[in-house]
Amino acid sequence: MLGGLIVLFFHFIVAPFAVVHALLFKRDHRAALGWVSVSVLFPIAGPVLYFFFGVNRIRHSAREVTGWKSKLPYFGYERGDIFLPQVPPPLEVNTYPLAHVGWRTTATPLIAGNAVSFLKNGDAFYPRLIEAIKSARVRVWISSYIFSGDGIGMEIVAALTNAVERNVDTRVLVDGVGAWYSLHSLRRSLKGTGIRYAEFLPPRLLPPSLHINLRNHRKIAIIDIEYAFFGGLNIDNRHFVTSPRIDNPHEDVHFELYGPAAISLAKVFSHDWYAATREMLVVAAGNREKRGNSFARVIEDGPDEGLDRLAMTLLGLVGGACRRIRIMTPYFLPHRELVGALQGAAVRGVVVEVLLPQQSNLRYVDWATQHSLWELLQWGVHISLKPLPFAHSKLFIVDDDYVLAGSSNLDPRSLRLNFEMDVELFDTKLAEIVNDYFDDAWKDARVLRLEDLDQRSVLTRLRDGFFWLFSAYL
């Protein structure tokens, strides 16, 4: 009798509920159709599978991390809170038409008057960071996905400890999963130094906290208010490229920003620190005095309110490009809309160049990437594979005056799951420097051709296709 009631309950209440939820809230019609079919054909197992694997909990969990509470969890659309500005765009769009894209996706204006420097690899970045820490008077806030507790990490800790002795507000935020990438514990090394240390969502069993997918991938350093660093470098010896002692060097770039836009980066750190500690940091208004000629705008992206902000910005940039699009990324698994936009740009005469590592540190991502590159090659997108050292740089360059740089890769993990941060930079001279960097890397790379992919063996194609199935989770 009880078994029959359970079967009826699933048939007439639970299964229809799963169908209605999928119809209302799934973004992809193929996913919705699949879950509706499973729930109808298997009215007991189907809804159970849908509850565990079909309901998107990422955004709900991410918003709870940042302090938001839901009265009705898991009921809502898979979208960020985007508020399109209702006022005319700022005047800078007359000079930089692409500025309209970021204005619409972030509702924040460009900030003028910044001096931005290009820092290549840890060889340039780490000494400059240590120098800036030594000169700090008010605060040093550092956020990094990985902060190794040895080598260069300890040199930076020494500079931070000295800053504490000068009564500088000194804080370090490290991702809870990224903290495990180093064999040497940074937490242990910081004991007794006076440096405020926190981890973003560290995995733990008691009380349970296993938000493995919600990672803070941002790399930011705030010195006082007017100085800031951002880009793709973690604090780790692997980013020393010229040192013969490093077995597997990672090439990457960082930027130093001096000017009023630094306050926007400080606010990003403040938000992340609150998410990790529930301590609110006050970010006072900085000096608006002009320091250089760069316009800058910070784009926060994440699975909470910032969901799709960066993805939509990229689509707008590709559609607005006039001459050239250049992409450098270590992991390249673009969503369907971006693939179509890049194809469309290529067929309308825009030169589209994508520079990928010949071999990344995640071979299964390389294999998944190979599976679908033919879709871009057949429509005239140029793709080259750079040999070692591993190209870990993340750059998106459009025409001759636009650079988008920061922490995000072009894969689902970055664009859907991670907390990321990129910065738009409108500066012709800076773009020229970054383009020169791209040119040097492209010269050493091997051009990938459609026939190269066609000549893969059946077993290789099956391997690539298998890992491609899991693109959303790699």
UniProtKB/TrEMBL annotation:
One of its GO terms (molecular function) is cardiolipin synthase activity. SMART domains: PLDc. InterPro entries: CLS_N (IPR027379), PLD-like_dom (IPR025202), PLipase_D/transphosphatidylase (IPR001736). It comes from the Bacteria. One of its GO terms (cellular component) is plasma membrane. Keywords: Cell membrane, Membrane, Transferase, Transmembrane, Transmembrane helix. Its EC number is 2.7.8.-. The keyword Membrane applies. It is found in: Cell membrane. It is an enzyme of class 2 (transferase). The chain crosses the membrane at residues 6-25, 32-53. Residues 212-239, 392-414 form the PLD phosphodiesterase domain. GO terms for biological process: cardiolipin biosynthetic process. Pfam families: PLDc_2 (PF13091), PLDc_N (PF13396). It is a multi-pass membrane protein. SUPFAM superfamilies: Phospholipase D/nuclease (SSF56024). This is Cardiolipin synthetase 2. It comes from Nitrosococcus oceani (strain ATCC 19707 / BCRC 17464 / JCM 30415 / NCIMB 11848 / C-107).
